[in-house]
Amino acid sequence: MASGADAEYVLLDTNMGQVVVELYTDHAPRACTNFATLALKGYYNGVVFHRIIKDFMIQGGDPTGTGRGGSSIYGEKPLDDPHPLLKHSGAGIISMANSGPKTEGSQFFITLAPTPWLDGKHIIFGRIKSGMSIVQRIGLVETDESDRPVTKIIIRKARVLERGDGEIDDEAEAESGTRTETDAFGPVEVPNERYYGAQTFRSLSNFKINQPADRMPEPIIKAFGVLKKAAAAVNMTYGLDEKIGNAIQQAAQEVIDGQGKISSDDFPLVVWQTGSGTQSNMNANEVISNRAIEILGGKLGTKSPVHPNDHVNMSASSNDTFPTVMHISAVLEINQRLLPALKSLHQAFVAKSHEFDQIIKIGRTHLQDATPLTLGQEFSGYATQLEFGIARIESTLPRLSLLAQGGTAVGTGLNTKIGFDVKVAEEVSRITGYHFKTAPNKFEALAAHDAIVEASGALNTLAASLTKIANDIRFLGSGPRCGLGELSLPENEPGI
C-alpha cells in the first residue's frame, strides 16, 4: 500500500458518487501528504460536506461537521505556502480551507467555478481528476440559511489509489464511472457508457427546462446519421483519410439503423436549445467521433484519431447542417410514414363510398333535414378531402428536397470545396433512395424555413380535414336510442 507521502491520487466515495482527486505533490507536498495520510488512516470516513455554496464551492473534511474542527498530521506546524503558479481558475480545484480557526488541519474545499479572489490565500493541493459531475451535483443540493445541506452529503470512505500495472486514468474512470472530456471551456466528466462528450454534457446543464417528451425526435437523429455519413463519403474525395472516413461512415450507419453500440441514450438533448441546433449537431459529432475512435481502437474522449469538429463536422456548420437535417427528416417521414398511412385511409374511404352507394339517407344543413343523398356520396366527400390533403403534402416535397448543406455559416460556402454541396445532395439521395438537390440559394436556405412552414400549413389543413371527418362520423354514430344512430361504430372498449 502506498504511503501518504507517495500518493498521487485519492478517491472520495460519497453517498452521491465517487470522486478522484489528483494531488499536486510538487507544488504543495506537505498539504498532499497530509490529505493522503488522513485518507489512509480513515480520518475522512463518515465525514460530511458541511458547507455548500452554489456556484462557489463545497467544503468538508471536518470530523465534527461544524466547520470548526479537524487536525493535520503535522500538528500546529504550517503545511505549505500557497504556490504562486497555482490559481483557482475554474471548477474542480481543491484547496485547504485555511481561513478560520482549525480549518488548516484537515478541512478542504472544492471549487464549483473560477474563484480568483482566493488566489494566494488558500493552499491549492490538487484538482478533480474524475467525478466532476458528482461534485457539480453536490453543489446543487438544497441548503439552509447557513449553507449547510438539508440532506447529509457524506464521504463514506476515502482511500489512496495505487497506480499498479495500469494507467491511473483507467483506474480512476473505472472507479468513478466517468471519463474526462474537454472543450474550449475546460474539462467535464461524462458517463463512461455514453458516446457523447463535453458540449453535449454542457447543454444538459444549460437547458434544464425539459421533460422526457421534449427529447429531440428520433427522425432528426437518424437524419444526422444520414448527413454525417454522406459528408464523410464526399470529404474522402477531397482528402479525408480513408480509415477515418470509413470509421465515421460505419458509426453514422449505426445512428441511421438505431442498432449497434450507439443507442438513443447517446442523444439525450431536448428541443430547447439554440435556434441553429448547435447542441444537437455537436451531440451527433461527438457520438459519431467517439464511436469511430472506438472502431479504430482508440480511447473515448481523446478526439484522436477522429476529431468531432475537424473530421465529423468537416466542411460544415450547424447553420447549414440543422436546416439540412430538418429537410431530410421531413422528406423521409412524409414518404415513409405519413403518405402510406394517408393513402391507406383514402382507399378505405373510397371502398366505403362504393359499399354505401345504394344507402339513401337524409342530408342536413345546420342539423335541419334537407334533401336526400346516398351514404356513399357522403363518404366520397371524405375520400376527396383526403385526396386533396395528400396532394397538398406531396406538393411541398420538391422544396423540402432542397438542402442547405454547403452554405456553412452564413450561406457563402466558406471553408468548403467547390462542388461539395452538389455531391452531398447526391450522396444523401443514394443513401435514402429519395431525390435530393442542393438548394440553389443558400442564403434563403439558411435564413428562412419557408419550405417547413409550407409543409406545416399542408399538415394543418390535413389535421382540420381529419377533425371534420371524425366529428361527422362521431355525430352520425350518436345514440343509438336518442341520437342520430345512422352509423354503427364498432365497440372497442367498455364505458362507465
From TrEMBL:
Its EC number is 5.2.1.8. SUPFAM superfamilies: Cyclophilin-like, L-aspartase-like. Residues 6-160 form the PPIase cyclophilin-type domain. InterPro entries: Cyclophilin-like_dom_sf (IPR029000), Cyclophilin-type_PPIase_CS (IPR020892), Cyclophilin-type_PPIase_dom (IPR002130), Fum_hydII (IPR005677), Fumarase/histidase_N (IPR024083), Fumarate_lyase_N (IPR022761), L-Aspartase-like (IPR008948). Keywords: Isomerase, Lyase, Repeat, Rotamase, WD repeat. It holds the Pfam family Pro_isomerase. It is an enzyme of class 5 (isomerase). GO terms for biological process: fumarate metabolic process; malate metabolic process; protein folding; tricarboxylic acid cycle. The keyword Repeat applies. PANTHER family: ASPARTATEAMMONIA/ARGININOSUCCINATE/ADENYLOSUCCINATE LYASE (PTHR11444), FUMARATE HYDRATASE, MITOCHONDRIAL (PTHR11444:SF1). This is peptidylprolyl isomerase. It comes from Arthrobotrys oligospora (strain ATCC 24927 / CBS 115.81 / DSM 1491) (Nematode-trapping fungus). The lineage of its organism: Eukaryota, Fungi, Dikarya, Ascomycota, Pezizomycotina.
